[in-house]
């Protein structure tokens, strides 16, 4: 698959490593420009690009940058996107890092809905509660009783399937966590956030979540 990754940090870097190994055609971008991505490109075979180039012609774009930087992404980033483009959002709102976001704090907008509104394209939320190192260390074959499961939320069922199939290929089960308005169930400090467990426990943890934003994740 042709995949663009926007953000080359802990999560973006490790997704670049795994997805290139699986044979996908990966372009990767950061904020400082392609010249700063030479080492990652040499290590993985991914193509370093600008943010706009990462979105162009891709079947899947991963947005994996701090929430506070989402409004800095070029406007119209997905204007020329192919029909059926899936956009995967790994983001979390950390007030200490991102500053106060009123729509999330006061209006109860989910973190991924806020991101959608800024980038102008629906997203699928996944990996937001997964330790970056686990992307390298924890994959297991389908059917292994120790295989971890990741919650996946989103409104576009076709895009959700693209993301769920890719996560399976990466070595993890998935659990359908509903639409983006329900994605508070997997935001920071919920029972599923950071949970290393299989489908049954992840399903239970999603059901046990409470919609109130925890004090620890308020500005
Ligand atoms: N770390 C984890 O284990 C983990 C787990 C789950 C979810 N998350 C979430 O996933 C997101 C990414 O986390 P991370 O730990 O991978 O972040 P990180 O290590 O801090 O890396 C952030 C990356 O985003 C890039 N970036 C920032 N602003 C940008 C912009 N305007 N355009 C293009 N690229 C930009 C940075 O580019 P430069 O290098 O050029 O500055 C950097 O490559 C966050 O929302 C985080 O909360 C993280």
Structural notes for this entry:
This protein is α/β, with parallel strands linked by helices and 219 residues long. The protein contains nine helices and eight strands. Strands 3-2-1-4-5-6-7-8 form an eight-stranded mixed β-sheet, with helices on both faces. The radius of gyration is 16 Å and the shape is globular. It binds NADP nicotinamide-adenine-dinucleotide phosphate.
Order of helices and strands: EHEHEHEEHHHEHEHEH
Distance between the termini: 39 Å
Low-confidence stretches: none
The chain-level structural class is: alpha/beta
Number of domains: 1
Any idea what the shape is?
globular
* Average pLDDT, all residues: 97
Distinct small molecules bound, one entry per kind: NADP nicotinamide-adenine-dinucleotide phosphate
| Share of helix, binned | 25-40%
Question: Strand order of the main beta sheet, please?
Answer: 3-2-1-4-5-6-7-8
Can you identify the CATH superfamily?
Answer: NAD(P)-binding Rossmann-like Domain
Tell me the strand percentage band. 5-15%
The biggest sheet amounts to:
8 strands, mixed
- The total count of helices amounts to 9
Assign the CATH class.
Alpha Beta
The name CATH uses for the topology is Rossmann fold
In angstroms, what is the radius of gyration?
16 Å
